[in-house]
Design a protein that fits this description.
heterodimer; A: 357 residues; ABC transporter involved in vitamin B12 uptake, BtuC; two-stranded antiparallel ribbon; 2 strands; 71% helix; B: 500 residues; 22 strands; globular
Chain lengths: 357, 500
């Protein structure tokens, strides 16, 4: 009797050369499928990709714009990395971002009379706190009442957005104004410019610093160790004194705070005032970025820049070739799918097993 | 044809573990046939192969004289084979009737409830079951839920029914009722395979097949065998030489467990009124089939579970409600029953696994930062000392062999513990040389003065290592024996609930 089977077997060793190969295969796949999509829309794929690339990377203005787009994604991506490493499925980066922006704006009003350095530190700290509070609350809800974190964080995303709309059409709307937005943030509270005459702002600096901090946290600290251990096996970890409750609260505090910094950065570096566009999906995109980045800080930064490039280049692509920039959203999704497949490809091999009686 | 089911040379492997080793086995039409053996003997695996959940690596299964190959339980069900698992697969919010017809022809597009209702009434009458077809599952007692599982099988005109440890969750009255139902089924011509480790149930069957470590030991007519013979077949028949253990006088009482009551996962008591002392320089062995409360006892001692009542004392401290971190700090080490689930983090390296529990100790962490150099030096030391075979200390523990993975747990626990060692099935699944290594380590710690609690299903291991042996059955201590000249038959009997 023949029992033939096809099995997926975990690879013993994953060399980085093989990982790189899988990564390149994923990129190739993405370009291929997106190219097909573009041609079925009646446009020239190669032309489109060329303009995408030019728009993203050619010229100082393009590069700056790519980085500006990438900045919030780095931060929301890092927020997701911290939570997901502990297998805490927080989908609340969007809401935490907004609450962070709200808190930072409020801080800018409250600290108005003080010297610049205090104002800047104050708004950044409070931006962190805003996101952190939301994160901790959801973490606590899970620890104490077993409320699923996916549900609580997503629900709060909506709730916080309504809070924002309320604030911007009520207490924080300048009297006599039509638009649903706040008064401009005071000059003192704005993040400093990194490159003269460009949009490159201090938020990128914050993002890079946070990336480094997250790297050190995960690799070198006892807490980072606990996050990794707890995320991989909460049962064995609890046997050895790592309390699930503590993990939930601490991890969500850090994750929420980092997302709050994303909101701070957008408020004080890009928009200069609080409006309903402050997030624009950066929270959710950050999750994709983190996953593509393999849940590592460096990978997240690279993936964020990649996505920033796609969005930025998409404008140029639309202007020159007429391919709508919403194609970029399709590209982002296709990228994620291919990256997930390539992760599977890099870690497993296909084995055919045949045995005779 | 007399044999309804015939299995020849069936082998089922999970990775390197051989769960069923060239099993040859048959069941006659209309008989109640028990599969008897300890946990890990391979009974459930064999049953799942018959039911189609698993596909064996090799071997032949013949049902009603024809060779069969099942891709899934659906194929088995179509031939009239049914299985009732230890964990019921019922949908609590739905009614009895709905649970019975789900997945059947009568619930494909339109619900044929009238036909189902009639059949239900007829089955209940035939098997003397009293059930309200419109009652919701969550409203029923455990025994009643099991009847629903049985009705599910009967509804599909089962001809061959396998029950996996059905009385594990039942009260004595419910167990009796179950056997009455099984006998009615038998009279109707349905063949029944009963998986159990309880002698009382075995003695009610027609034939019994004893399994040990994946192999068939023997198949006998129940009428022509005795409880003692069966026990003998179930437990290891080789008795190890007691060379290594020297008599040591225990100096002091280290752990005292008083009147411990611990609730189990299904609401009943996993541990009831348990009293035990552990002294220094002593190994106390707990004999018993896994699932009789050892896990809950160990979890309570480690701090994961809190007992409902009772006390646990470590020296002069009441540690009954201490957290795992506190108990760890007090010098208690734990080698868990399920090394991959409870002891190791499979996706992390040897370094990370050896560090678990010590990641905040001043030895390795200063102000929250880990001293990687110190950690790695320590890990390398342990790997050398314990001769852990691995490409490097960064190798992921999931890639190590079972024996080496257990060595990682051992190295860590022996290092972290300073007064007490709790070892739950420490050599399960390990080959002889590694098991021997573990034994020598335990005896070494005994000499150093540790109080050691050892739970094992291997009697010869217990005899080799213990000073005293206690038998655990259904959460209580059924008996205590001196390990010098233990009454093996009596121990085996108590392990299988023999005196009940």
């Amino acid at each position: 009797m023949n029992w033939a089977k096809i099995r997926l077997e975990r690879r013993d060793e994953v060399t980085w050369a093989w990982r790189l190969f899988c990564f390149l295969v994923a990129i190739l796949g993405t370009l291929l499928v997106t190219g097909i999509l573009i041609s079925t829309a009646g446009k020239e794929p190669i032309e489109a990709f060329k303009e995408l690339f030019i728009g993203a990377f050619v010229g100082i203005d393009s590069i700056v714009e790519t980085l500006v787009r990438a900045t919030p994604l780095i931060l929301t991506g890092l927020a997701a990395v911290v939570a997901f490493r502990a297998k805490i499925w927080s989908i609340g980066q969007e809401g935490q971002l907004v609450l962070g922006a709200i808190a930072a704006y409020w801080a800018s009003i409250v600290f108005e009379g003080l010297p610049r350095i205090i104002v800047l530190s104050g708004v950044i700290c409070l931006g962190f706190v805003g996101g952190a509070l939301l994160g901790v609350f959801c973490g606590w809800l899970k620890a104490r009442y077993r409320v699923d974190e996916i549900i609580s964080t997503v629900m709060f995303n909506y709730a916080i957005f309504y809070l924002l709309t309320y604030l911007l059409s009520g207490p924080w709307q300048p009297p006599g104004d039509f638009y649903v937005q706040s008064a401009p943030v005071i000059e003192k509270a704005l993040l400093p410019n990194l490159l003269q005459d460009t949009r490159l702002h201090g938020g990128l600096f914050i993002a890079i610093v946070v990336a480094i901090i997250v790297y050190i946290l995960i690799k070198r600290t006892a807490l980072g160790y606990e996050i990794r251990a707890f995320g991989s096996n909460p049962i064995a970890s609890s046997f050895k004194g790592i309390k699930p409750t503590r993990m939930l609260v601490v991890v969500m505090l850090i994750s929420g705070g980092i997302a709050g910094l994303a909101g701070t950065s957008e408020l004080l570096g890009v928009h200069g005032r609080l409006n309903t566009d402050i997030a624009a999906g950066a929270g959710y995109t950050g999750i994709i970025v983190a996953l593509i980045g393999g849940l590592t800080p460096l990978g997240t930064v690279i993936a964020a820049v990649l996505f920033g490039a796609m969005v930025n280049g998409g404008f140029m692509m639309q202007v020159i070739t007429g391919v709508p920039k919403s194609m970029v959203f399709a590209m982002q999704a296709i990228t994620l799918l291919f990256f997930l497949c390539s992760t599977l490809m890099s870690q497993y091999r296909i084995k055919r097993v045949t045995e005779d009686v | 044809m007399l044999e309804q089911l015939q299995i020849k040379n069936l082998t089922k492997r999970f990775g390197t573990v051989i769960a069923n080793d060239r099993v040859t086995f048959d069941v006659r039409r209309g008989e109640i046939h028990c599969l008897f053996g300890e946990n890990g003997a391979g009974k459930s695996t064999l049953a799942e192969c018959i039911y189609g959940t698993y596909r064996p690596e090799s071997g032949a299964i013949c049902f009603n004289g024809e060779l069969v190959e099942f891709n899934s339980p659906r194929d088995a069900i179509q031939l009239g084979i049914g299985m009732i698992h230890q964990h019921f697969v019922l949908v609590p919010p739905l009614t009895v009737l709905e649970n019975i017809i789900v997945g059947t022809e009568d619930a494909k597009v339109l619900l044929n409830t009238q036909k189902a209702e009639n059949k239900f009434k007829e089955l209940c009458a035939r098997y003397e079951l009293k059930l309200n077809s419109h009652a919701a599952i969550w409203d029923l007692s455990v025994g009643e839920q099991q009847w629903v599982e049985i009705l599910k099988a009967l509804y599909l005109d089962v001809k061959f029914l396998i029950l996996d440890e059905p009385t594990a969750v039942l009260t004595p009255e419910e167990s009796d009722k179950l056997f009455r139902i099984l006998n009615v089924m038998k009279r109707q011509g349905i063949s029944i395979v009963l998986i159990t480790h309880k002698l009382k149930e075995v003695m009610q069957s027609d034939r019994v097949t004893v399994m040990r470590k994946g192999k068939i030991v023997n198949t006998v007519d129940t009428k022509s065998t005795t409880r003692e013979q069966l026990t003998h077949m179930m437990i290891s028949s080789e008795i190890a030489v007691q060379g290594l253990k020297k008599q040591i006088n225990s100096e002091s009482t280290v752990v005292q467990i008083k009147k411990l009551d611990v609730r189990g996962p299904r609401g009943g008591y996993a541990v009831k009124d348990l009293n035990l002392t552990l002294n220094s320089h002593e190994i106390v062995g707990i004999a018993g089939v896994a699932g009789n409360g050892q896990k809950e006892l160990f979890e309570t001692l480690v701090g994961i579970q809190s007992p409902e009542s009772g006390e646990v004392w470590l020296d002069t401290e009441d540690i009954t409600h201490w957290s795992p971190a506190e108990i760890l700090a007090a010098g208690v080490g734990h080698i868990p029953q399920d090394r991959y689930r409870e002891g190791l983090i499979g996706q992390l390296s040897i370094v990370d696994n050896l560090l678990l529990g010590m990641h905040r100790s001043p030895r390795f962490a200063q102000r929250g930062f880990l001293d990687q150099e110190r950690v790695r030096a320590f890990v390398q030391e342990q790997v050398d000392q314990f001769e852990i075979v691995a490409p490097s200390i960064d190798t992921v523990v999931g890639n190590l062999s079972g024996g080496n993975a257990q060595k990682v747990v051992l190295a860590r626990e022996l290092f972290q513990a300073s007064v007490v060692l709790l070892a739950n099935q420490p050599t399960r699944g390990l080959d002889i040389s590694i098991a021997d290594y573990v034994h020598r380590q335990l005896l070494e710690k005994r000499k150093e003065g540790y109080a050691i609690l050892l739970a094992s299903e291997e009697l010869d291991e217990l005899i080799k290592l213990s000073d005293r042996i206690v038998v655990m059955f259904k959460g209580q201590i059924a008996g205590e024996f001196d390990a010098e000249n233990p009454d093996l038959e009596q121990i085996g009997l108590l392990m299988a609930g023999g005196n009940l």
